[in-house]
Amino acid sequence: MNESKLKEGISIVIPSFRPNHYLSRLLSSIEAQEDLPENFLEVIIVINGKEAFDVTSVAKEVEILSTKHIVRVLYNSIGSVSKARNIGIDASSREFITFCDDDDWIGSRYLCELYKVANNQSIACAPMINVSIDGESFNKNINTFLDESRADKLEAYSRVITISACKLLPTKTVKQIYFDEHLLSGEDVVYFSSYMSKFSPKLVNVKNKNSFYYRYVTEKSVSRQPVSFDFNVDQRLDVIQRLVQSSSKEIDWYQRIINGQLSFVNKYYAKHPESENRIKGAFNKRGLGRLMSSHNNTFSINLRGK
Q1: Burial, 204: exposed, middle or buried (Cβ in 10 Å; 0-12, 13-18, 19+)?
Q2: What is the pLDDT of residues 230-239, one digit of tens each?
Q3: Lowest mean pLDDT among 80-94, 180-194, 215-229, 252-266
Q4: For residue range 25-77, what is the model confidence (pLDDT) as tens digits?
Q5: Which one of 8, 145, 188, 212 has the fewest beta carbons within 10 angstroms of its own beta carbon?
Q6: The domain 3-222: what is its CATH number?
């Protein structure tokens, strides 16, 4: 869509693999958003990996939400969250865009507070609370990085920028980059690192107590995957390979992000020291061997040797 045709308001892209009561909760939280005019929101639900969608599971919430805002249901038969997000990006018609996972939900002023501080040269960030399956809330120190005294420091946002949640972005720039559909995980890390490198946006944040993004964390969440060579080494090095390719500036920030990915590699190495040569082979396979070093039972990458 031509950016001149983008309408005032916010597009919300929601990939959903198995729509259920969690999606109902998210849609209800969107319906409850405060201080937004009628039809200000465009809610795009992308059914991910299913040819058919049993709308009955969320029919009530869709009907109620549709009385206030635009709701669209699209389909992605491939079963890729990156593909689903890309479909949502292409379909978005509002001036700003945000992403929500279908098992998360948002505070009642999440969208209006983000919109207040958003502009075409910035990424607006909201605080986030992780919620466990038993209802326990924790933030893993993410919100301590959204401190007004550090608001002009890129590193203050590194833990927030590299996830798809809790931010509002200009649609015209989001449409210029796509999520990598070949990655099995970490696609958000690569996407937003590329976004930062391409556009160098200003980072702003909101503080209202009702503007939180609530992220539902289960044993199946990416951060809690069981240790394996595939996830901890192969998938993380695929992400690192993309990060190295796009790290044209803000080297220190990219190094921080890469170190975070390497922590998964080193977690596997600590449990399987006999795999050292196999891990080195995985680095070399991706052309990362020249940047890699290994000492004190730890693998590292020096991005300045690029």
Answers
A1: buried
A2: 999 999 999 9
A3: 215-229
A4: 999 999 999 999 999 999 999 988 755 566 677 888 889 999 999 999 998 88
A5: 8
A6: 3.90.550.10
Q: What is the DSSP code (8-state) at residue 234?
A: I
For residue 53, the one-letter residue type is: F
Strand order, beta sheet including 167-170: 70-76, 41-48, 7-16, 94-99, 167-170, 122-125, 202-205
- 292 φ, ψ (degrees, to nearest 5): -95, 145
| pTM: predicted TM-score of the whole model, two decimal places | 0.91
List Cβ neighbours of 59 (8 Å cut-off, separation of 6 or more): none
Which tokens sit at 31?
């319906």
CA 254/CA 251 separation, integer angstroms:
5
HSE-CB for 305 with a 13 A CA cutoff: 10
